[in-house]
Each structure stands twice: as C-alpha cells, then as structure tokens.
Amino acid sequence: MANLTLKATPRLGGRNHRVGDNRIVERSDIALHAIGFATEEKPAIEGALVEVFGIAWPTSKVATCAGEARALFLSPDQLLLVREGVDLDQRHSLPKFEAVGYPTNQSDVWVVCEVMGPDVLAALERMCAVDLDPAVFSLGSYARTLMMHLSVIIVRHADDGFLLICPSAAAESFWHDIVLSFEWVQP
User: Fold this and answer.
1) 111-145 burial string, b = 16+ CB within 10 Å, else e?
2) What's the rounded Cα separation, in Å, for the pair 16 and 104?
3) pLDDT for 135-157, tens place per residue?
C-alpha cells in the first residue's frame, strides 16, 4: 500500500489580487471554530474566552478581539472564533472549550477573503445591503448577510479593510464577484 501524506492547501490557492490601489486576498492563515454550548454553560464559555484568548463576550453586532483572536456571537448558543496567523497544518481542537461546549473546526467549510483599499466601500456597496459607513459599521462590527446570493459574514477589521467569510463551495464564484465589483468602481 502506498504511503501517502496529505498536505493542506488554500481553497483558492492563496490568491492575492490588485485592482488599482485595492487588494483582494484569500486569507488561508485564519482558523474558524464554531463553539456551540448549552445555555447553562454560557458562564463557563465566557470564562474560557477570557482565560485562553483574553476576549470578553461579544455583542450581536460587535466582535471582541485580543491579539489575533476574535469572537463573533452567532446565536444564543453559538460563537464563531476567528483566529489569524494559524498555519493550515496547525489548526487544532480547543481543549479548554471541549470541556464546556462543542467546538467544531469550520476552517474548511468557509473561505475568508480580505478586501482593502480606498475603493472598498464603493465596491462592497454593489454587493452588500448592509450599511458599511464607518459611523454605522465601525471597527469590529460584523453582520451575517447575503452577498451575490450567498450567505456571508462580513467583519470590519480595519478602517478600509473587511473580512468576507463565505461558504467554500462557492469560493470561485464569490472571488469572481468581488474582483468584478472592484473593477466596476475603478475610474
């Protein structure tokens, strides 16, 4: 029998694209974990967030973050933990959370694209019904919405930068739509 070794690869091959002064990047260094929990375990999950990552409990519209970790409140019994700087081969379980909840590695189910640059708002408003004006959608804000008929989580992580988290099965078409939207707003 052959001795095979599997090697993790980014869904979009680690694409990094420029449109004018804007960048669109597949972020394959981001690990995603859904953490489900029973309602009575919420205090224990809160404690684990603080102990392991130094993160307070997020609100339904604003993520909490510390260092390279960010927590998003998805429902009364589920969080999404977004951790940057994680190597594809080093995504692992979250033992502290396994004792009080149900963490599930979602990194292969979603693809994360980072969009940034001076035209980011103009490009995203063509695709997204959420008001992304910084006065309304400030740093750390996030929303679940539809973009080009796909369920997407959008997170503002910089003044001119957003993370777009979409189902990996639609990664190619979503990438195409993002690039096209940026091309349309170029002078």
Assistant:
1) bbbbbbbebbbebbeebbebebeeeebeebbbbee
2) 28
3) 999 999 999 999 988 999 999 99
